[in-house]
């Protein structure tokens, strides 16, 4: 009984992370087919489903022990773009497009091109202002489709080739830039780009 009471107390007193989404943009990068779709508008951050999807993914990785700390190099292009955004010289969509373009350069140049969606958001994590970049790898999934054939209902099973990670899955490549002090937390993977082992997040996107 004593052990159960302690575990309940720990669960009840655990501090829950609070994420607030201010702005978010999604870009589609398909290096397999060579098709990219850069959004010209923001996602509706007030939509509960969109807000929940992004917030839950950030909650899963933001305090992870797998994240590495880093700092920008003096010539980082991303730091320059973020400074322009913070100073009001660039809007958030333009900042997100700069992120997506840099990510696509690395993905398309790798030995194994892939398709993914990039979510860039201006948010707060436990009241800390953050620019977050989430690389959402596309998966193949199945869904149903209802059709009518000769007056009869026909249920079909079809492939979907661009399924985003569910909120129960953990995103494995991401970056969080604290806009108060420009400190960085990130997680990346090495892949061969131009014949060299390169971290897409640290080396290509952040230049940190």
Describe this structure in words.
- It is a single chain.
- This protein is α+β, with helices and mostly antiparallel strands and 208 residues long.
- It is built from five helices and eleven strands.
- The strands form three sheets. The chain has a seven-stranded antiparallel β-sheet with strand order 2-1-4-5-8-9-3. It has a two-stranded antiparallel sheet with strand order 6-7. A two-stranded antiparallel sheet has the order 10-11.
- The longest helix has 18 residues.
- It is globular.
- The N terminus is likely disordered.
Secondary-structure map:
Layout: H1 2-13, E1 19-30, E2 35-37, H2 48-61, E3 68-70, H3 77-86, H4 92-109, E4 115-125, E5 128-137, E6 139-149, E7 152-163, E8 174-178, E9 184-187, E10 190-193, E11 196-199, H5 200-206
Antiparallel strand pairs: 1-2, 1-4, 3-9, 4-5, 5-8, 6-7, 8-9, 10-11
Strand percentage lies at 35-45%
Strands ordered across the widest β-sheet: 2-1-4-5-8-9-3
Oligomer: single chain
Largest sheet data: 7 strands, antiparallel
Q: Indicate the low-confidence ranges by residue numbers.
A: 1-7, 9-13
Average pLDDT for all residues: 86
What is the CA-CA span between the terminal residues?
51 Å
Broad structural category: alpha+beta
How many DSSP-defined strands? 11
Q: How large is the count of helical segments? A: 5
Report the order of strands and helices. HEEHEHHEEEEEEEEH
Helicity, as a percent range: 25-40%
User: Any idea what the radius of gyration is?
Assistant: 20 Å
Q: Given the C-alpha coordinates, what overall shape results?
A: globular
């Amino acid at each position: 009984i004593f052990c159960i009471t302690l575990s309940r107390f720990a669960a009840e007193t655990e501090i829950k992370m609070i994420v607030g989404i201010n702005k978010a943009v999604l870009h589609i990068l398909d290096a397999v087919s060579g098709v990219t779709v850069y959004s010209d508008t923001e996602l509706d951050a007030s939509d509960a489903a969109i807000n929940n999807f992004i917030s839950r993914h950030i909650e899963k990785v933001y305090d992870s022990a797998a994240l590495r700390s880093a700092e920008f190099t003096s010539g980082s292009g991303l730091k320059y773009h973020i400074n322009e955004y913070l100073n009001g010289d660039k809007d958030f969509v333009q900042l997100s497009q700069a992120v997506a373009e840099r990510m696509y350069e690395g993905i398309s140049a790798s030995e194994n091109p892939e398709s993914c969606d990039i979510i860039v958001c201006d948010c707060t994590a436990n009241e800390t202002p953050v620019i977050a970049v989430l690389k959402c790898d596309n998966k193949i999934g199945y869904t149903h489709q209802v059709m009518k054939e000769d007056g009869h209902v026909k249920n079909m099973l079809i492939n979907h080739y661009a399924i985003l990670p569910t909120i129960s899955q953990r995103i494995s490549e991401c970056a969080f830039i604290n806009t108060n002090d420009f400190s960085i937390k990130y997680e990346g993977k090495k892949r061969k780009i131009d014949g060299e082992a390169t971290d897409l997040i640290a080396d290509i996107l952040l230049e940190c």
